[in-house]
Specification:
By secondary structure, the chain is of the alpha/beta class. The protein contains 15 helices and 14 strands. The protein has two domains: 2-185 and 363-381, 3-Layer(aba) Sandwich (Rossmann fold), CATH 3.40.50.2000; 188-361, Glycogen Phosphorylase B (Rossmann fold), CATH 3.40.50. Helix content is 44%, strand content 17%. Helix 1 packs across helix 15, helix 2 (75-91) runs parallel beside helix 3 and helix 8 packs across helix 13 (331-343). The longest helix is centred in the C-terminal third of the chain and has 18 residues, at 364-381. The chain is globular.
Amino acid sequence: MKLLIITEYFPKSSDVEIRGGVETRCFYIAKELAKRHDVTVISALEPETPRDQTIEKIKIIRCGRPKEYLQTGGVIQRLSFMKEAYSIGCRLDIDIVEGTNFITYIPAYYIAREKGIPNIAWYNDVWIGKWTHNIGLVSGLAGEVLERFALSRDWSCIIANTKFTLNNLIKQGKQRERLEVIPCGIDLKKCNNIKVEKEITPSICCVSRLVRYKKIDTLIKALYYIKNKIPDIRCRIIGTGPEKRRLKRLAEDLGLKKNINFLGFVKSHRDVLREIKRSHILCLPSVVEGFGIVVLEAMACSTPYVCSNIPALREVTKNATGGLMFEGGNPKDLSQKILYLLEDKGLYNKCVEEGAKLVQRYNWESIAKRTERVYEWAIKQCYRPKS
């Protein structure tokens, strides 16, 4: 097959510089499928990246106005990317096209309609009715409009990453026979090959975009309580975003400046995994997650997790296998769950063993094959966009 995947961001090299689950999934699906098919990825142009590039047999075309990685805003740059992605896609010789988020659904849909080919929407989470609460009024209103428009289109198939997302798509009126559930995965081999010992000092790692709904402030407040029992507790926060200044100020106000290290964006995915593996606990305090790949990566790195008790994470972890869950937004409950793991060696080892077994089902090779079958089905069924 000749496949086109459109994603707003894509790694710049085989080191896999990624900042979110969408990019992770796009890279590994493209990498696996490129072993058997002709795969092209259209992505937004970031500063100091080539417009045309090949990584792991994946042909990459970057377009639109150059822009840094954005959490919100960037309306002009994003519109430029959408317009140019559509123009480029229409000129390619392809059999099927996939969009991967709200910025890419529209160009993917109209490329398919122009060329008379099937289209796929990969869906991470349904945010209808939640946009302004999650990211603010201006960007939220734009996101609400884009998502409602995208879901009103006639897709050959929508791939949901969890049953939770699938059920929310059905609530929005999508036909069950055009929906498929395929989870994300992890690079088990890469996790296993990283050789690093756990630190002597108790430590926590958090890998997250620094945006409001990720609730990093809950973790910082929890550390304030933990410090009373473990004065030398260490926490490394990997990620960037508009909340960074506020979070650093909060850490200073709570007397945690020496306990928390904000590492910012860590370029190499292998280095991110190394930080997770040498830590005692991975914390994901987010109350909005479509999947939570980093929790699976923690289990593959023999690092138990503590994460928010929300539907997507309950599903992915099979009800807290390999770690513990806390009441989202409750720093006291989070601190208690972290202390349980740090103080109870039997519980800790049990989580390590259970997590190692669970993650075996989340390997990219088998997930790519499932995705491949969906593409083949869509082409065979000749489902084309109608409106």
